[in-house]
Write a sequence for this structure.
């Protein structure tokens, strides 16, 4: 089954065809169905239903979570769609609140702190540190679009562009590796899991 | 009035989460913990919100017999079968790691997994054809990008170290210095942007929930 | 379908052949380790038997070829050194199954007992909310393990209430999830974090690694192969079993050369056609 579906998807490389579209349709349906099944038995049942049934008194607040969750679906009923917006507002409010503190405390401050590098140490170390400081500042200036890049901003943002190009080149190299890894996984499955056993079966060799 | 209530709810939740980051006196941490537990449940419900839109779109396609409606039939059937198996087989699941052998798991392991893995592996072929067709060194910036890419690609593989022995050291230097600097600049910029967007949402200036 | 005069399908065929040859006949090219990967190996080597680490499966089947070998190597390393592992899954589309696949494969290789040497708590929705809650009490988020046994009845979980009862958290992550461990679990709760990332995400994580928000970074299949190499060097008895990523690096070598060849060839074709157009333009202008 897995080999047939793998080859069905690879048939797209030759030409778009009904077998590929069949496999693609199954993929879409099964991934969404899997989400539903997983969400139900991994979260909703143990974290909400079982806990409320086992100990309704101390766990009463969990019912609010269930109600908010169900309210999200009210957006599909025009008369009560405002309830869906309220639930979504709570959901978004929570996540942006967490995101705000996380980004400032976990991203901005530590990264700025680590950019405060000594420039008065051994020569090569200081040169590398200078490269990093110049790189970070020039990239930040490049992405500052509130002012046109004229005057002193122009050469600095140009330096930033070169740093970004090196970064994108490195990312491209890594991306190539990532994509090939996925191909390796599939071909290894086809060869080791299907072709080799079939050959062994036909020719009776180990 | 209803819109104002939505804005108020977003503000109260977001503001409370921010304040709870700083205040450790009861009952703030206790309420914060309970809020986290609630949102785990709400997140679970939100995860399948897209399914309703999906069903609406595809059932309309089937009713009107639009082009590709048979694909919609297959998609919806797969979804319903998988969802029902997931819900009704859950009572016999959880019997241990080795013991999980339900139809739900079988469909995931032998249908979904190969389909997703193969879909993504198509990108390896696309990237090869893009390398031949699209990556043109038209200016200095493109040349810098390509040189960095080739050095990193050689440095990351064993044969690269045979052809060009310094490629590993140079590629590690690139990753730990210019790449790091640029990634950090992008990270700081994006984080500040995300933080300012978060403030705008909490204050009701942006209302993505409407 | 033609690119530069060549049908795209010939390009696909060349890539497929280039990938198949090393799979059928491995080249056995060596893999050298880097400091970013050695840091995780040394950290686990420094732990005492009975210490606990948390391993989070934050990826699905689309990242499995890169991250499965990492998961298997780390589990083998921990079980070999009698280090207990608390396993969780936080990625919605497949994290649960990837965790089970890895444990199903590695657990039978060692005399480990579920509930004492390792425990699989299962998958939970919520991402950030789950990570925040586990800093206080893991049992609030995971009231039971994968078998349905309450955490208070599991010997291993009786001594692990939250992150501070573990020595290290390792996240095998796709997308943004590795970042969450660094900027939330490490930055806010001080937990040492190591991330095994897909090669697509890895370049971004160097900033976190250098800032000390991550103890270690395993990037893509190369990172997995480096860890396998370290395992093989220190534990020869495990070497034969830890070869998946190392064999995959042979394929990476050949296909990388093919793609570099395509880039160079494509640019040669482009430069030739550009100079021909320039000459043709010059001849027209002189007429």
């Amino acid at each position: 089954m897995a080999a047939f579906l793998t080859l069905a998807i690879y048939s797209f490389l030759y030409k778009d065809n009904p077998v590929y579209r069949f496999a693609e349709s199954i993929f879409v349906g099964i991934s969404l169905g899997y989400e539903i099944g997983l969400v139900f038995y991994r979260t909703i049942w143990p974290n909400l239903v079982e806990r409320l049934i086992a100990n309704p008194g101390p766990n009463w607040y969990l019912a609010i979570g269930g109600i908010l969750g169900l309210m999200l679906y009210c957006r599909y009923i025009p008369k009560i769609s405002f309830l869906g917006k309220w639930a979504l507002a709570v959901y978004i409010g929570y996540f942006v609140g967490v995101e705000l503190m996380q980004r400032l405390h976990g991203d901005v401050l530590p990264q700025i702190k680590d950019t405060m590098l000594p420039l008065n140490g051994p020569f090569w170390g200081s040169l590398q540190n200078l490269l990093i400081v110049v790189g970070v500042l020039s990239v930040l200036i490049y992405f500052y679009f509130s002012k046109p890049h004229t005057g002193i901003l122009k050469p600095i943002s140009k330096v930033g562009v070169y740093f970004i190009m090196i970064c994108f080149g490195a990312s491209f190299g890594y991306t190539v590796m990532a994509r090939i890894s996925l191909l390796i996984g599939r071909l290894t499955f086809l060869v080791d899991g299907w072709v080799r056993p079939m050959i062994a079966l036909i020719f009776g060799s180990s | 009035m209803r819109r104002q209530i939505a804005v108020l709810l977003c503000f109260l939740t977001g503001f409370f989460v921010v304040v709870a980051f700083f205040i450790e006196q009861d009952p703030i941490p206790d309420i914060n913990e309970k809020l986290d537990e609630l949102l785990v449940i709400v997140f679970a419900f939100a995860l399948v919100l897209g399914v309703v839109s999906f069903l609406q779109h595809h059932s309309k396609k089937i009713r009107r017999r639009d082009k590709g409606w048979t694909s919609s039939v297959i998609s919806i059937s797969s979804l319903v079968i998988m969802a029902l198996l997931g819900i009704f087989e859950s009572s016999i699941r959880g019997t241990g790691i080795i013991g999980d052998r339900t139809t739900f798991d079988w469909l995931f392991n032998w249908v979904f997994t190969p389909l997703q893995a193969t879909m993504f592996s198509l990108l390896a072929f696309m990237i090869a054809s893009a390398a031949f067709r699209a990556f043109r060194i038209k200016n200095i910036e493109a040349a810098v990008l390509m040189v960095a890419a080739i050095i990193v690609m050689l440095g990351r593989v064993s044969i690269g170290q045979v052809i060009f022995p310094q490629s590993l050291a140079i590629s590690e230097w690139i990753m730990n210095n210019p790449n790091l600097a640029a990634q950090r600049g992008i990270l700081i910029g994006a984080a500040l942007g995300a933080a300012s967007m978060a403030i705008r949402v909490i204050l009701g200036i942006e209302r993505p929930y409407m | 379908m033609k690119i530069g005069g060549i049908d795209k399908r010939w390009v696909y065929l060349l890539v497929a052949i280039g990938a198949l040859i090393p799979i059928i006949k491995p080249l056995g090219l060596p893999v050298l380790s880097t400091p970013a990967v050695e840091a995780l190996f040394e950290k686990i080597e420094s732990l005492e038997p009975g210490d606990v680490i948390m391993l989070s499966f934050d990826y699905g089947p689309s990242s499995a070829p890169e991250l499965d070998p990492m998961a298997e190597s780390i589990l083998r390393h921990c079980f070999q050194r009698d280090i207990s592992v608390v396993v969780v899954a936080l990625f919605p589309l497949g994290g649960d199954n990837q965790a089970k696949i890895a444990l199903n494969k590695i657990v039978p290789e060692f005399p480990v007992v579920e509930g004492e040497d390792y425990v699989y708590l299962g998958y939970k929705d919520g991402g950030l909310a789950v990570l925040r809650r586990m800093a206080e009490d893991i049992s609030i988020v995971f009231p039971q393990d994968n078998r349905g046994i309450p955490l208070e009845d599991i010997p291993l979980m009786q001594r692990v209430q939250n992150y501070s009862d573990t020595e290290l958290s390792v996240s095998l992550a796709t997308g943004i999830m590795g970042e969450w461990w660094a900027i939330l679990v490490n930055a806010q709760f001080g937990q040492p974090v190591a991330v095994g990332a897909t090669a697509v995400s890895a370049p971004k994580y160097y900033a976190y690694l250098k800032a000390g928000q991550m103890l270690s970074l395993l990037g893509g299949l190369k990172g997995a192969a480096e860890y396998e190499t370290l395992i093989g060097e220190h534990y020869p008895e495990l070497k034969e079993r830890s070869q998946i990523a190392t064999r995959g690096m042979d394929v990476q070598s050949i296909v990388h050369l093919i793609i570099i060849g395509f880039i160079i060839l494509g640019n040669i074709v482009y430069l030739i056609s550009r100079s021909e157009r320039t000459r043709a333009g010059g001849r027209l202008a002189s007429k």
